[in-house]
Structures are given as C-alpha cells and as structure tokens.
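Follow-up to my earlier ticket, as requested here are the two runs.
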Amino acid sequence: MDPLSALTVLARLGERCPNNLVYLAQALEGRPHLFADCLAVAEGGWPRELDSTVARIVSGWPSAQACAFHNRLPEHTTSLRETGLAVTAACWQILEARGDTTPDSDRFRAEIGNNLVARLSELGRYDAAVERAAGLIDYFRPRADSSREQTHYLARSLSSQGMALGGAGLVQEAVTAYHEAAGLLRRLADQADSDTDLDLGLVLNNLAGQCLAAGQTDAAVTAVLESVAIHRRYRDRAPGPEREPRRNRANLAAALGALANALVADGQFAAAYEAAQEAAAILAVVKEDRPARFTDQWAMALVNLAMTEQRLDHLDDAVAHLRTAAGEYQRMADAYPDAFLADCAKVHRNLVIGLLRLGDRHEALNAAATAFDCAAHLSPREPPPAVGPAEEALSLYLQLEPYKHLGRTGLQRLDTMVATLLGRTAARRLVLIDTLIKTGRALKEADRAQEALVLIRAAADAARPLADQAEGGDAPTLLCSALVQCLSIQTGSPQPEAVREIAEQALHRLEILARGDEGDRANASLLLNNLANALSWFDLPEQAGSAARLAVGLLRDLADQDRERFEPQLAVALNTLARRRQALGLTNEALTSARESCSRLAPFAQASPDRYGDWMAEMADFERRLAAPK
C-alpha cells in the first residue's frame, strides 16, 4: 500500500473509533516529515474529513514539533489550505493552553498567530483574520519597546492585519496598518539587520498595492521604489548571483513587478516596461532551479510584461508572452485546479483582448471558451458582488461568435456554458442573468438582433422562477428588464400574439416591482418608461399609456423625496406620457403633460446644458408642435 493510502486508512480508523487514533499518531510522530510529503503528493485528493483528526493529534505535540510540522504543509490547493488552517489552529490552541509569556513562547506566538491570519486570509475568511490580527497587535504593542524582537513581532502582526484588511476591502485601514509596520521595520533595519531589511521590502510591496487600490499612485511608486532599492542592496551584499538565495531574487522580481504596476498607473509606460522585463528575466532563471516553486510567479511576470507591452503597442510581443503564460497556467490548473483555475481564466481573458487587437478572431474565440471552462469550475460557495470570471468569459464568447456561425458543435458548447452557470447557486444565476441581458444589449447595438433576442429570452426564462421566490434578490428587476428588452428588440416587426403576452407579463411584473422599496420603485419607473416607448411600436396604445402613467406616478413620489436625482427623470417620463396620450387622440391631456415636462426640466437644462440641453430642445419642440393650431 502506498504511504498516502496507508495514512488515509489509519485516519479513517481514528474517525470511527478514537482509540484507533494511536496508530495514526504513531505514524505522524515517527516520521512527520514523510506525512507532510505525502500531503504534497496528495494535493487535490486529500480527504477533507481527516483535517480534524490530524489537528487533534498535532494539538498533543510540543509546540516546537507542532510548529515544524505546520510549516511544512503545502498550500497549493484549497483542500490542503483547509488542512493547514486546522493544524495551525491546533498549534495556536497549544500556545493558548500553556499561557506562557517567555521570549521563546512569544516567538512561537508571533509565528503561529501570523500564519493563522495568513491561512484565514487565503481562504477568504477576512473578518476572522482581521480579528485574529487585532488580538496579536493588542498582545505585542505593550511589549514592543522591551526588545527589538518584540518590535519585530508587532511589525509582522501589523503587516498581517494590512493583508486581512485589504482582503476585506478596507483599503485605507490596510494602508494605515502597512505604514505603521513599515515605520517599525525601518527603525529596526537601521541596525543593519538584513532579515529585517527584507521584511521591510515585502511590507512596502504590499503597501504599494493597497496605495494603488486607494488611488494614491505617487505613494505607491515611492513605496515600491524603496522596496526595489532594499532588495538590490541585499543582492549586492551577496557573494555573487550563483550564491544569492533564490528567495531574495524572487522577492526582487516581485518588487519590480509591483513597481511596473505602479508606474503603469502613473502613466510611465516605458519605465514600467523596463521593470516588468527585468522581473520576468529574473524569474526565468530562478524557476529553472525550482519550477514547482516559481513557475507561477514567472508566468504572472509574463502577464505583467505583456500588459506594459500593450501600453507601448508592442502587440506581437504582448500576445506571445500571454500565450506562454496561458499555457503555463493551463498546465498548473490541470495539476492544482483549486489554486490556479482563477488565474488561468484571467490570463486567457487577457489573451482574448490581445488577440482581438491583433485581429485574430478565431484564436480569440478559443481562448474565450478556455477562459469559461476554467472559470466555470471555480467553487461557487461565495457569490460574487459583480460579474464573475465565468460570466465575463461567457460574455466575451457570445460577443465574439455570431449564432449563425456557431454550428452544431458551437451551439452545444454554448448550451453547456449556460447550463453550467444555471446549475449554480441563486446568487450565481443572477449574475449569469445580468450577463445575458447586457450581452444581448451589446449584440442588439451591433445589429445582431436575432442573436440578442435568444439571449434575452434565456435570461427571462432563468429569472422567472427566481422572481417568484420570497427571497429572489434582484431577480424581479432582472426579469422585468429582460421582458422589456425582449419587446424593444422586436420593435418594427409585425405584432405577433407573443408580443402581447410579453407586454402583459412585463406590465404585471412591473406593477409588483413598483410596490417595493425605493430602489425597486426607481428601477420600475425607468423600466416602465422604456416599456411605454417599446409598446409604441406595436398596436398596443392602451398598454403603452398605462405604463407611462405608472412611471409618472412613481417618479412624482420619488421626486418629492429627492428632487435632484428624480426630477429630470420625471420630466422625461412626462414627455413619454404626452406622446402616448397624443397617440390615443388625447391632445389636451398630451399638451398638459408636455408643458409640465418642459417646466420641470428647464432649471436643470440651464444649470447643465451639456447634459440636458438636447433633451430640453427635443421636448420643447414637441410641446410647440402640440400647441400649434390645427
């Protein structure tokens, strides 16, 4: 039996009967390094139910042995990151149970505590990571002045807090944490401690990333330039490139990559290209020695280099580097899907854009399909706040490939894409529905109305069951939007019975939406106005008038609460109502609505002629024509 199978059997015996844990414990205690190596081989296949078993065994070890074991755990896949978190948490419980405050225990506390923050952050559990980092800071801050080691522990904890805060979207708070960590490390680095110097460089890299996220480009460039200088100084102190630690060369490459990103944001594309080129060259050498450790960093460096090359219009070089990076990520994703599928999808998306700029539509289409295949297999546990990589890849694919050119194989692949996303959680399906509507709108604007209609109808069919649920989220709004889009796409065509049915569905659904909160009412008013305009193309004047009246009624109430936001929309809706009344032969009522629309929009047109001037001119002309003697 191979080692992994043997360990799995022992662990499952322990799960069934606690008395049997002694056998697994003996295996772990006897050769813990072999167990960690087995985990490395087992990436992607480790049984998750065994995490608690391993954690219970590790929790009985001395802290030094537990720390040594947990440091060997690989982090290539989500499943093993969960194992790492379980073991790290067990090690933390050892420290908490001992309650020591000796220098040795504080060293373990800093190491295990900050690793615990990192493990939590890697799994997206940012709130728990922020809380854990705050506890470490509260512990080490009063001790920071007692020794340089304690100051270093505080700096590491602040850096971990910055990572967790950045992951949680609290960018400015992350910048503040990194700034304090950098200040402490800068003070220690003045004492010629090279290890502390390198820690400062890494913190400055992270600080630069958060500064960019906060829109502080100058601060990002300043921070990462200091980081690059630190890593260059350390390299220059080394005996020679052949003896220079690989890790520091990789750190220098990371700093140069961060510098390239900051310089791109600052508009310094030529300088960004030089930094990205040097980073890629360094990692190309480093990864030859340890491909399993550094290939992903080299591939990402190629992506960054390609982004700078695109800025300089070196399109052939950019696409060549993206092709290489995409191939590497595809191989890594095949081996470690949980770790690399997301990046693989992003790289293929960038490749699509580069290929389109070169005019290679066929390869771009295949790259878009690959991006979808990668992204569609990502874990759907956490619903995305916006369009996710799979939905974005589907949108690219749909916009690239006209339905009439798909063929049977292409249609089957498209059906598989949509079915894959429809099989996800409700939140994911809402993202897909939104993507289908937006893509349909783009296809319509590209004069591909029939293809657009297929997508919009698919969106409506997917949204309908979700909209009927008590907690359907945005599904009611998306369904109404899809129904209105269905009608607007078909304007000018003979009115089939299906159009009347869709119109009745849309009006009914919008009446329900109009009874919701302020956001629902605002969405309903906009869609009702669009519905009224769409119905004007068909022989449905009564339904068009009803939609226009409902829109005006909603917007009157909304404008009473927020004039600046809703008064111009009310003016537009009144103009639509005037036109619908004219179509019904209600000339006097139409003129009344037209005059009110002009009087309400006039102050806004005077204040912002660029924004409202054209609307004002068109509405005033309509009013004059209505008022002219017949």
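Run two:
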Amino acid sequence: MASNGRFCGSCGHEMPTAATVAGKTANHSKKIVIIMAVVVLIGLAGLVAGVVWPRLQADSAATPTVAIAETSAKDEMEVVVAPTDSSEIIPAATTTPTDTASATGTLTTATLATESAALPTATPTTKPTLPPPPTPTPAVDEIVFQSNRDGDYEIYIMHINGDQQRPLTDNRADDQYPRVSPDGRRITFESNRDGNPEIYVMNRDGSDQTRLTFDSANDRLPTWSPDSQQITFQSGRSGVSDLYIINADGSDLRQVANTPAREGHTSWSVNDKLVFNASQELYWQIYVSNLDGSGRQQLTHTRIDEWSPEWSPDGSQILFMSEQGSSTNAGIYVMNADGSDARLLYNSAQEEWGPVWSGDGSKILFTVDQPDGSADIFMMNADGSNVYRVSERGGYPSWAGPQPSDYDGVTATIQDVEVIATANRTTSDLALRAGQTVIIEYIDGTWQAGPSPTWPPVGPEGDAQVPAKNTFPIPNQPVMSLIAGIDDGVPHFVGNRLEWTVEEDGYLWLGPNDDGIVDNSGVLFVRVTVLTPGDKP
C-alpha cells in the first residue's frame, strides 16, 4: 500500500515576452511616416462611413439572410480531460468535478430589416430569471474510500461506477478507515491529525469534522449502529485492544466487555448483535456477542487467521477474510450468521482486504493490493461472480446509500429512451428544468464500436470496446459509454450510469461517446429518472 504519491500538478509554459528595440535614439523619419499613416486611415474611415456603409445597409434590407455557425459532430462529442503523469495511472475527478468539454454549437439569427428606413435598435430577449431551487442531497448510491494519492491518506467519495471522485478531507495527517452511517448522512473515520489515532465524524460532504475520542491510546476502526446514532470502535486504553461504544455526539463512552483477549474490527447487526475478530492465543477467530458483551460465542474454530467480519444488511450472513485456502494468501469468504456453511467468494494472486456489503446486500466492495504497491477498489456480486475494478488508487471502501429524507416532497418523472449508436445525438422529448436531478441508467440492449464484429458488446458493467483515449472519465479504461447534454450544449457527463443536476432549462439528448459513429452498430435502452426536489425538512 506504499505509494510514491506522485501525480501531475499545474502544467504550462512561460509565454515569450515581446522583443524590445535596442537603443534610445529616435528616428525622425519614422515619426513622419506614422503621422502620414494616421491621416490616411482617418480618410478611409470617412469614406466607409459616408459611402460604403449606406450601400451595405441597402443591400441587407433588400436580401435578408440567416447565418448559422456550424459545429462538427466530433466537436460536440469530445470531452477534454487534463493530462496526468504518465508514470502512474490517476483516477479522474479526484477533486470536485467540473464539466469539461469542447466548443459548443452556436445558432445566430440575423434581424430582418423592414421597409421603414429608421427602425429602433432591437432589444435582445433573455430567459426569465427563475428563483434558485433547493439544492438536493445526492439521491444516488456512492462509495467512500481512503487513498494516499496525495502522499498521505485522505477520505474520498465517488459514484459507484468510479466517476466524480472528490476529496472529503485535506490535511497532512492520515485519515483512514471510513464508514458511512446507514442513513447515508455522516461518515466516521480514524485520523492521527492530533498526534495519535482517534475517532472522528463528519457530514457526507466533508463538512463539520468533529473529534469524538480523546485518549493517548490508539482508537481505531469505527463503525455505526443500525440507527446511525452510535459508533463502536476498538481501543487500547485498557492495556489490551477492547471494544467500545460511544454516541455519535461523543457522549456516553462505555466498554463492551473486559476480557484478556485482543478484540477488533467490529460490525453491528440489525438484530443488535456485534460480530468481531478476537485472539487470545495465536490465531484470530470470529466471535459474536450482545451489545454489553454477554452471550459471547465463537463462530470459527480453526488453526488459521480469520478476521474482518461484516454483517449483511439483513443480518443473515457474515462476510470475512480467511486463510482457509492458503496460509499465505487469504480470500474473501461468507458464512451464515451462526457460523455454518462457510464458503469462498473470491481469491486472487494478490492480497484482498476490507470487504463490505452494498446497501441492499447484492454487491460486495473490497480492496486488492497491486504489484506496484498501490491498491485498487473492486466490486463483485454477492455470490462472488462478475468481479471488476471500480477505481484505481483507493482502499477500504464503504457504501454510501441515498438520503431520501432530504427529498421531502420530491416528484419523479421516469421515461425509457432508445439511444442509437450510429447517431451522435438522440434527442428526447424530456423537458428539463434547472435544479432538477437527472439519473440515466442502462436497462437493456447492446452496441459495438468500430468495424470489428468480434468485439464484445457493452452491457451494464461496461465491457471493453474502443481504444483508450482522453474522452473517457477514467483514463486507460476503454469503454464505449453514454454521453448526455441539454439542447445544443456539450456533454455533461460520460459513463455507463449518469447523474447530474441540471443547470439550465432545455431538452435532454443522449448519444455514444465514440467519435467514429459511422462504424458503430446497435441500440441501448436506458431509463431516465428526473427528480424535482421539494423543500428540505
């Protein structure tokens, strides 16, 4: 997990200065030439004003025209991404995302002259200024994770497809092991910004970062209660690593149990049971207990290490790491809540760690160390199938669910749209209003890019299609994806699942992000959900 932390900063070059003229002697003949040139220019200006301009006005009145400035399809499709250091791959959008795109298409209409010689100057019409709507909290699932891409560990957030990555913390300390509250509003994490690892909380957008624990011992690996009101963590303040619970406002700190075993990495189930790993002898094993430490029960009984347990959202299963298959290469396992039916889900040649469930229990997020010392975030189905990389340079992911309570009074419009691969724009009849949230998700269909029919079609997970180029949201991950925009505007986002807040009124259009649309084939069916937020509670 070590990293050299390098990535490209500000780039550019110094513009050459204008050459200065040597010497300070004045040339009298040059002054004469300049005076004569000024006189000639004044004469020409008078000739244009008195003769040429009236004739041009008369010609314009006789033959009105409409001029259209055209833009090529390629210009409208192209999305520009700032270059990164070629020595390593950096995920796009590590800061607050901005729309980056090529020049927009411009429509210019000339004012038609009438028979009257004297007309008042036309006043251009503008769109009425609408009152700004409430800013909605993201109504989408996201992923919070840690990354040391800037030299020390910070907490980041991104969409579940890896897009729109932005930092939530920014300091010279290590901020690690984030966990999102079940209601999706807050994040607890570990930070050594005050000298040693302590437990902190912050809002989902990174605001209001607050320290909860104050002890010289290490307080680590926090996680939430199902009602998002309490936090459990491990601490060495008793002389050995034990489990503690504290309210989310920092009050009512209490120890779960005082045992001679070392305890850590706890998870709190919807049934108010704690699962954790503990070791009294040589190996880590999985245990469960009540919140006060009573009813302690050992679930695994092996002579190998088994650790990092996580309850499934419904409390019926436990995800964990185990060396059952190899003492040198642990894998990701799942078992029933009573410890029965343990089975392997995934194990690669590299080291996996930090597995966690998605909000609905259908997916599993985890981290895989890479040969270069970095770590990447992966996702798979709950049965271990369909493993794919979500993002590079990240680890210890946590699922951040939507916050429906922030959409009190929300109305939703849903429409299915057919997107044709050979058309650079498929215009829909969805009229959008500034402030609405648009979510575009794949439903069905396939399309192919380029002349080769052997390339696999794009599905919901975005299979590799076209050669990597800088129009993709994550460099060097080639996929033929969707683009979307409003009216004649440039694309807002690129990806297999799009979400953004509309900035101005207009009609939605969609298309493929491949320049060579003549060679494309196929049709995608997508579902467009338009959310109009009401007043926040």
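The only thing I checked on run two: The chain has two helices and 34 strands. Let me know what else you need.
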